[in-house]
């Protein structure tokens, strides 16, 4: 019984000494008034993406059909930064996707009425067929 009581005291001391300090004003939950999103929604995003994408002849010949999973930050000024392809497709599609994503504008997230940076993660379907736009070589 005495060993159990001592162990309980030690564990309590350890947990309280390493506990997070919630009195720190920097350590607070952010309550978003609005999450970041694309003007017109995800369907408009995919349509705009498909309209701008250009593919290599190899990608067109391979008939790539899959999804790109991407993580990126929407900055308070609506620009995109920190693009990271989590799951790509190859054939220079990932690079083209990143290039187009960086040129797009999103509505930034808002907290307490102010625009703030927010990380987003999404899956974008890519369908490459014989009628897809061929990328002009530089």
Please tell me about this protein's structure.
- β4 and β5 form a beta hairpin.
- The strands form 2 sheets. A 3-stranded antiparallel sheet has the order 1-4-5, with no helix packed on it.
- The protein has a domain of 95 residues: TolA/TonB C-terminal domain (2-Layer Sandwich), CATH 3.30.2420.
- It is built from 4 helices and 6 strands.
- The termini are far apart.
- The chain is α+β, with helices and mostly antiparallel strands and 138 residues long.
Poorly predicted parts: none
Kindly report the spatial arrangement of strands forming the biggest sheet: 1-4-5
Which percent range fits the helix content?
25-40%
**Portion in strands:** 25-35%
Q: Count the E strands.
A: 6
- In DSSP terms (H or I, runs of 4 or more residues), the helix count works out at 4
Structural category is alpha+beta
CATH level-3 fold name of the domain at 33-127: TolA/TonB C-terminal domain
The gyration radius over C-alpha positions equals: 23 Å
Taken from the alpha-carbon principal axes, the silhouette is flat
CATH class category label of the domain at 33-127: Alpha Beta
CATH architecture of the domain at 33-127: 2-Layer Sandwich
Intertermini distance: 78 Å
Mean pLDDT: 84
| Main sheet properties | 3 strands, antiparallel
N-to-C SSE string, H for helix and E for strand: HEHHEEHEEE
